[in-house]
Design a protein that fits this description.
The chain has 623 residues and is of the alpha+beta class. It folds into two domains: 113 residues, Penicillin-binding protein 2a (Domain 2); 382 residues, DD-peptidase/beta-lactamase superfamily (Beta-lactamase), CATH 3.40.710.10. α13 crosses α15. The protein is elongated. It starts with a helix and ends in an 18-residue tail after the last helix.
Length: 623
């Protein structure tokens, strides 16, 4: 009797458990089918396709509104391996122009993420796209995705604008926004402003029929998210000036950087040799990159404007003059002798000039002896201190002009240059064996001192402003609001007060007058202040350097030019700078002046890399 009641009790318990389980399943199914429609999408995944809607990458304009970078439509063939139920492999290979081994290789890679869309073939042509559209019903699990590719209307500013490339596996793992094979900025503005340019990708949930054709959007698109286009970028460069500078620098290795001293906006950033930026777009990018990388003669991928560390040569004398005036060891009337060199060191460094000079004349004639004396007077001036105090004060003053460290521009891969420290010289000479004359070549911009072209342009902008500069930058506005980074509105003051700049500026003006080293590059009707330089190069011919600003009053452009392995600054760099200043201030050079036309023709024709059309006449050779 008791056993019968016990069995009856167990029967009810077991029945209750089954009822409870059934209720749980019924509730779960009700939730999935009625309340949570996303679960329906997941359950019927083979009938739905999740497609990334790529944002249109932002356009880039120059300072006058001219388009520098835009987009063209491109197509990628995508695959979701899990959905590949049947596929006419031979037909697909025929349309794409690949063999079965290529098909297998692509599928093997895609199967690493079987439930996710993967790239099968990138950047297919419009013709291939049209053929695929007709046969997509034979390629179940495959679909075509639209995206955009960059295009450069003008073949200029390759290093400045930069290029995009594919996201690596490591990058995709680091940043969940990207997946492997997406595109990301690699260099230039494309890299520096990647987040602003890329926009925000969207997602579309499409319904697909048994023939692999899209028949609509799930739930009328309620699960779709719209792509947000990247912001338009308004660049500081003048496209016409940039293009002109690149023409003048063709066939030469070097750089030209022009800045508006009143704002710090970069007007032109030329690095030569350059390349057609369209070579870094599309299916041929990897091949073209390899070709450019193998060009060891010109090294066209090297951004000399931001990465080329050069001895500044005689242009550095301007900084030494200003530091000497500020420290009270130099006046405009100070006279030093020259007998074709610096006498205390046996007429080394050598100087082409001879005779005594005051400050303005020394700048005009670029006297090495004069500025060797100036350097010695600065580092030996350490009241109550030591030689180390004098040297460190000189170094601090020099670096306040924005040299020897990164300027903080809005472009990537900027180097810092070098103003050697005492620690370095102690290692070379020993602490007790260091004195001014041992390192006197620093005073004329040689020895271990190196400056980047963008820093040289910034130095002359600082001189044009009589003691301050704005951090050089390449973007003047973002998006419709045209917002800019507030840090580019801040004045950076060097250690030399404004009252010390006038005699140096007057000396620079005399450089462009008869008797000056840049006289043949003077511009009729424009008061131009300049300084030539010849930077000694231990690896070959000297580099030619020239920097200038104009007009003298209310300057609108500050510019520096380095041409490698060609000798004196007045021979090549000064004419290039002169022509670019006239182009910017007047819209074009004076085409009624035979002298200016001849200068332009010669600069564009001379090919120093291949040693073609190089003049032998001494008419244009100036230091």
């Amino acid at each position: 009797m008791k056993s019968s009641r016990h069995l009856e009790s167990r029967k009810f318990i077991i029945g209750g458990v089954f009822v409870l389980v059934a209720l749980i399943y019924i509730c779960r199914l009700f939730y999935m089918q009625v309340i949570d429609k996303q679960s329906v999408v997941d359950a019927r995944n083979n009938a739905f396709r999740y497609r990334t809607e790529y944002a249109v990458r932002g356009y880039i304009y120059d300072r006058k509104g001219k388009l520098l970078l835009l987009n063209d439509l491109a197509y990628d063939l995508m695959v979701v391996p899990k959905n590949v139920k049947s596929c006419d492999t031979m037909a697909l290979c025929s349309v794409l122009g690949i063999d079965t081994a290529g098909f297998s290789k692509r599928m093997k890679k895609a199967k690493l993420t079987p439930r996710k869309e993967s790239y099968f073939e990138k950047q297919i042509s419009s013709e291939v796209y049209a053929k695929l559209q007709e046969k997509m019903y034979r390629f179940q699990g495959f679909f075509i995705q639209k995206r955009s590719l960059r295009r450069y209307p003008k073949k200029i500013a390759a290093h400045l604008l930069g290029y995009i490339g594919e996201v690596s596996k490591a990058q995709a793992e680091k940043d969940p926004y990207y997946k492997e094979g997406d595109y990301i900025g690699i260099s230039g503005i494309e890299k520096a402003y990647e987040k602003e340019l890329r926009g925000v990708n969207g997602t579309k949930v499409e319904m697909v029929d048994v023939n692999n054709k899209v028949v609509g959007h799930y739930a009328n698109g309620s699960y779709d998210t719209l792509a947000i286009s990247g912001k338009a970028l308004y660049c500081t460069i003048d496209a016409d000036l940039q293009e002109y500078g690149e023409k003048l620098m063709q066939g030469k290795k070097g750089s030209v950087v022009a800045i508006d001293p009143s704002t710090g906006e970069i007007l032109a950033l030329v690095t030569s040799p350059t390349y057609d930026p369209n070579l870094m777009v599309g299916r041929e990018r990897s091949k073209n990159y390899g070709v450019l990388q193998k060009d060891t003669a010109g090294i066209p991928l090297f951004n000399r404007a931001l990465m080329g560390a050069y001895p500044p040569g005689s242009v550095f004398k301007l900084i030494d003059a200003l530091v000497g005036l500020k420290e009270g060891v130099l006046t405009p009337q100070t006279v030093y002798p020259c007998s074709h060199g610096y006498a205390p060191m046996g007429n080394k460094p050598y100087c082409h000039h001879a005779g005594s000079s005051d400050l303005e004349r020394a700048i005009q004639a670029s006297c090495n002896s004069y500025f060797s004396y100036v350097f010695k007077s600065i580092v030996d001036h350490h009241p109550g201190g030591t030689f180390a105090d004098g040297y460190n004060k000189w170094r601090d003053n020099v670096m306040s002009f924005g040299v020897g460290k990164k300027l903080g521009t809005d472009l990537p891969y900027e180097y810092g240059g070098n103003v050697p420290s005492l620690k370095y010289y102690y290692k070379v000479f020993g602490e007790g064996n260091l004195f001014a004359n041992r390192i006197v070549s620093l005073g004329i911009g040689q020895a271990e001192l190196t400056i980047l072209p963008v820093q040289m342009a910034n130095v002359v902008a600082c001189i044009a402003n009589h003691g301050y500069f704005y951090t050089p930058h390449i973007i003047r506005g973002l998006g419709e609001e045209k917002k800019t980074d507030p840090k580019f509105k801040i004045k950076n003051f060097c250690n030399v007060p404004g009252q010390y700049f006038l005699p140096v500026v007057d000396g620079m003006e005399k450089v462009m007058q008869p008797g000056g080293t840049g006289y043949l590059s003077a511009i009729k009707g424009i008061a131009m202040c300049g300084k030539t330089g010849t930077a000694q190069n231990p690896h070959g011919k000297d580099h030619a350097v020239f920097l200038a600003f104009a007009p003298k009053d209310n300057p609108k452009i500050a510019i520096a030019c380095v041409v490698e392995n060609c000798g004196f600054g007045g021979t090549f760099s000064a004419p290039i700078v002169s022509l670019m200043i006239e182009k910017y201030l007047k819209g074009d050079i004076d085409r009624k002046d035979p002298r200016r036309l001849d200068m332009e023709t010669r600069m564009m024709a001379i090919d120093l890399i291949n040693n073609k059309n190089v003049p032998v006449s001494k008419t244009y050779i100036q230091r």
